[in-house]
Amino acid sequence: MARAKAYPSMVPSGGHEPKTSYLKGESMASTAMTPQKRMASALVGTLLGVAVVAAVGFTLHSYSADPNGKLYATKSSDTIAVNGKTYPKASVTLNVYADNGQEADLGGKQLNGKTNKEDWVHYGPSTHVVLPAHTYITMTIKSYDGGEKLNNAYFARVVGTVDGTITVDGQQMKEVPEDAVQHTFTLHGLPTTSQDPLFVNVPLLKVEEGDKGFLPTKDSGTNFKGHTITFSFLTGSKGDYVWNCEYPCGDGSYAKFGNAMSAYGYMSGKVTVV
User: Fold this and answer.
1) Three-state SS at 205
2) pLDDT digit string (tens) for 121-153?
3) pTM greater than the 0.70 cutoff
4) CA gap 95, 90 in Å, rounded
5) What pLDDT digit, counting tens, does each position of 193-213 carry?
6) Which long-range contacts (CB under 8 A, 24 or more apart) does 111-116 make?
7) Contact status, residue 198 vs residue 186, Cβ threshold 8 Å
8) In the chain, N or C terminus with fewer CB closer than 10 Å?
9) DSSP letters of 251-265?
10) Buried b vs exposed e over 221-242: b needs ≥16 C-beta within 10 Å?
11) What angle do CA 168, 267, 157 make, to 5 degrees?
12) Are 94 and 139 in contact (CB under 8 A)?
């Protein structure tokens, strides 16, 4: 068997050769991260993300007032059976705008009739949603913004919906490519309560962009200017929950988790189950 070819070593100017020599076919294997290390690294990253989410949620719940009022879900007289149990139905619709100008151009407005103080990306018409307890909730999000790559691929997956899917412009999806995410709607509980658990993560497909701005989509529901995402989940007993976007869509500070990402009423809010 032929001996592995040795690469020339880099000798510092002082004349001392590094102790480590690199052999072709050996150095990469010896320095590559093992599957166990990769798994541990991913776990640490996920736990850190959960810790940040919990801290943000607690802060929102404890200290934030409602800047745009409460958006109440519309109850229906229809019912639906899920896993042998019958639930009443309710629905609610949110929108995601790139800025105040886009919201105005599309005919949208905040629930209180005012324009957001800062010209940042935001949800509307409110960031505080009120849902009935023990109900089959159908949420529709019409999203009009662009996007890039997530810094945590977990949030590209659909989690917590009734059937594990979302509908994007009429097409069922279980995930969105991590480099095609516009924003997320990530709903979760507070870390200190005994209320029913509730966790939902929905990635929103980005609107493609060209040299002159956003490109037309195929979605007639947004007049071909965005995407319509629909999904359903079940509420439990009454409780207070928070939601936030997990796509770093803020300014250049705090790894793009500044401004809109850290100011309540833009890319984070509350869900109250009553």
Assistant:
1) strand
2) 899 999 999 999 999 999 999 999 999 888 899
3) yes
4) 18
5) 689 999 999 999 999 999 999
6) 111/68, 111/69, 111/70, 111/71, 112/67, 112/68, 112/69, 114/68, 116/67, 116/265, 116/266
7) no
8) N
9) -SSGGGTSGGGTSTT
10) ebeebbbbbbbbbbbeeebbbb
11) 40
12) yes
